[in-house]
């Protein structure tokens, strides 16, 4: 297991806040010279601590004004049902997150839609058409307080 020291933790926190920091800016922020800083970042990437750099998008600015969490229960808890469901979800661009969970439901989806009518249509036509699904429960997100 990779040992993550306090300097590595600070690097990760800073890059989570702003992945566009240059190596020089990052090195200055952690009080390290650029070469060792760069080596640490490469090591974090190589060992899978840092898995990528992404642009955080505001869904509303893209015309997706409604965000929701959808809890999904599969008909059967088997590998073939899970594979069928996961393959179907991969094709839906409005689903931005899909996680397996414990409890009454098997999966939690985060999705974004243009309007409540659009959300309803997606739930009733596209999601309901996935044969592996037994039950769905939708929660509309009113306001996101924190995103990392």
UniProtKB/TrEMBL annotation:
HTH asnC-type domain mapped to chain residues: 4-65
Organism this protein belongs to: Umboniibacter marinipuniceus
Keywords: DNA-binding, Transcription, Transcription regulation
Protein name as it appears in the record: AsnC family transcriptional regulator
PANTHER family xrefs: LEUCINE-RESPONSIVE REGULATORY PROTEIN, TRANSCRIPTIONAL REGULATOR AZLB
Pfam families named in the record: AsnC_trans_reg, HTH_24
GO molecular function, one term: sequence-specific DNA binding
Stored PROSITE patterns: HTH_ASNC_1, HTH_ASNC_2
Gene Ontology terms: biological process: regulation of DNA-templated transcription; response to amino acid
Keyword Transcription included in the entry's annotation: yes
GO cellular component, one term: cytosol
Top-level division of the source organism's lineage: Bacteria
Alphabetized CDD domains for the sequence: HTH_ARSR
């Amino acid at each position: 297991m990779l040992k993550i020291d306090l300097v590595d933790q600070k690097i990760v926190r800073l890059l989570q806040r702003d992945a566009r920091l240059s190596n020089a800016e990052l090195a200055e922020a952690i009080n390290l010279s650029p070469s060792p800083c760069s080596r640490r970042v490469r090591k974090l990437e190589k060992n899978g601590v840092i898995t990528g750099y992404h642009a955080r998008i505001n869904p509303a600015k893209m015309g997706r004004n409604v965000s929701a969490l959808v809890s999904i229960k599969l008909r059967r808890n088997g590998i073939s049902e899970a594979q069928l469901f996961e393959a179907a979800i991969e094709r839906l661009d409005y689903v931005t997150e899909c996680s397996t969970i414990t409890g009454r439901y098997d999966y939690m989806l985060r999705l974004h839609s243009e309007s409540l009518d659009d959300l309803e249509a997606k739930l009733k036509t596209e999601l309901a058409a996935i044969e592996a699904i037994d039950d769905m429960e939708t929660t509309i997100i009113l306001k996101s307080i924190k995103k990392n």
